[in-house]
Design a protein that fits this description.
Phenylalanyl-tRNA Synthetase, Chain B, domain 1, Phenylalanyl-tRNA Synthetase, Chain B, domain 3, 5-stranded antiparallel sheet, about 25% helix
Length: about 850
Amino acid sequence: MRVPLSWLAEYVDLPEGSTPESVQEALVRVGLEEEDVHRVDVTGPLVVGQVLSFDEEPQKNGKVIRWCQVQVAPEGATAADGGDAVHGIVCGAHNFAPGDKVIVTLPGAVLPGPFPIAARKTYGHISDGMIASARELGLGDDHDGILTLGSLGLDAEVGTDAIALLGLDDTAIEINVTPDRGYAFSIRGVAREFSHSTGAAFRDPAIRDVPSGLSGVDVRVDDAAPIRGRIGCSVFTTRVVRDVDANAPTPTWMASRLRLAGIRSLSILVDITNYVMLELGQPIHGYDLDALAGGIVVRRARDGETLTTLDDATRTLNPEDLLITDDSGPIGLAGVMGGDTTEMGESTANVLVEAANFDPVSIARTARRHKLPSEASKRFERGVDPAIAAAAADRVVELMVRFAGGTADDRGSQLDTSTEVPSIPLPSGFSSSLIGVDYTDAEERSALEEIGCRVESSTGGLTVTPPTWRPDLTDKADLVEEIARIVGFDRIPSILPVAPPGRGLTRAQRARRAVADALASAGSTEVLAYPFVAAESNALFGSPSDEPVPAVTLANALDARAAQLRTSLLPGLIDIAHRNLSRGITDQALSEMGLVFRPEPGTVYGTIELPSGTQRPSDETIASLDAGIPPQPRHVAVLALGNAIAKQPGQPAVPAGIGDVLASVAQIGLAVGVHIDVVQGAHKALHPGRTAELRVNGTPVGFAGELLPDIADEHDLPRVVAVAEIDLDTVLSAAPEVVATHSILTQPAATQDLSLIVSEFVAAGDVLDAVREGAGDLLEEIRLVDDYRGSGVGDSEKSLTFALRFRAPDRTLTAAEASEAKLAGAARAGELFGAAIRD
């Protein structure tokens, strides 16, 4: 909302010397957010001049210019008084005559652009200034001719400062109005808030004597399809103004204020309706009375109806749309935009003024359905004061009579079915208990009365009736917020409460943070992807096999190409990697921790009716709601591509691969105290032979591997892209409550190597586990160091070499003890896999 300060000062006393910044600061104290300051970029000298004479001079290019003699100062003015009284000025416009008063920008002035003005030679003359058009002054789009005072309905002495005359010295502040503060979308509302902040005197522009008992305009509300049980129109006030001059000029001060408020001046009739909307917050619509056919009916649209709105777009209407109609059919989208058949135009002589109050939900839905946001809908969907319609209509009539030469008619209508605002009980002490400030009863009463509430004492507290312009005040917590705001946020202590003992992060939360920290410490960048993916992505990554994967399909997807909830984190990681790569980031190590959605086959979710919010739902209701949500396990995934170690002097580049993501898997297991086993696996999206299945205590918990080159190529990624994904919830369920630690042994270790020949189809990890099992407790560490196939080894066989380290906690092992343990391990591998010691 843009608020011209001169307009604001009409309804609240601005302190002497107020600046836009000081006004914004005052409004911030009561919860309105500052946005910007808007000024007219014009500096003087800019004066009223009078054309004395001119000579028309045709040019070689076919253009005819006028060499004008313009008086810009009172007669007899000298250089000491500010310059010569008469200046010679070249002008290309022809819409003026000798004697006309115009706006002259003298050398030294700066117009919007910026466009500095100086005396310069043009068309054979020294043009000592410029006669300005409306567009050059920033007053409008008209550039067909220069601006004359007569066209504006103004008169002023020659030499008068034109900046003040045209309102170009005004400034507007811009504030952000939150959805619950719709009343602040008006000068009236902002002036009231400034009064709350500073104590300055507020003058309510809505307090005026309005005629009552108007009749003669037939208005009826026929809402057979209310939205959520709420009738679409509760107030509909009309007034009639006759014999208006639709071509009368808009007063410069009004056009200037509208411009500063962000609204373009169109015509005197439209400008007046916009002016009153900004002033009082009540949207106004004017109809060409002679174009109306019969009475007005407010109703919902019928199937197949269309309406051509003021923007010349023909719209197919929805049965939920609220319409203004007459005997000819729809003539306006209620609260959004009028229709073109009854538009006020240059030939309009008689005007029907409408000031109504419409249901916010209905207006918001209509504006979004037709992608037609308007200044009116912006106010209606936040809630407009239902008690202000008559005053707003009367204000429009007053301005049309004054500036458009109209005559107020005694015809009109006053339909009002609005209900009284319900009272809200405010228990004693509730405000203090909620905010933490000891408010007195007098402070609470004063603050609530200041914002317009009616406050009455009752047993155990106060009974508060909010004002009609505050539909956001619906319960006692809202009242407490207003008390805190008006009394002052500075009263609220800034002492952090002491956390009660025995609380804090849960075990699962601590474990998840440990995993995230471990991955970040290892060099991974945590990212956050959207949970919406394409069905093809779910089918590819949701399961290692070709079995179909159940997925949740969104009923109202933001993007039809990503209409399912993800069953895997990898599609999001791959998309992020593609985006990063397109921006020049060639080396990436990414990780994400988040929920995936794994519906049970054959189950339909999201069909449970939501309970009322008036009371806590029963345990059975909560259980049924939980049953209506698909399982959402938490996964963690990593991706690596490019180089794990960048090339540098003396160090070649080390490319990232499956080893890097397996190292990340090991970090995850270490962070939660679980050993994650890596065994040969398969996945339809990963490279055969470079895919591992991840297990905890024999239970599959995820997979790791390299993307198939074709899939990497489809996403414009390098040939080698290593990924891994783990079901973190399953891993955490297997994690011990307390992570066991081992003492650091001080006895010397005994190391030995063991080479075993086994079938090439036996997994090396299985052989390693067998050796570990057979070697017993003395075995401290075992690593696979070589996998040999070739000369000296039979066909379809391989030689696996393991490095073993033995240690006893209480003594120095002998070579014989270490050899015995090694042979026991070899014997166990022989029992299970036919392994033989290689000579």
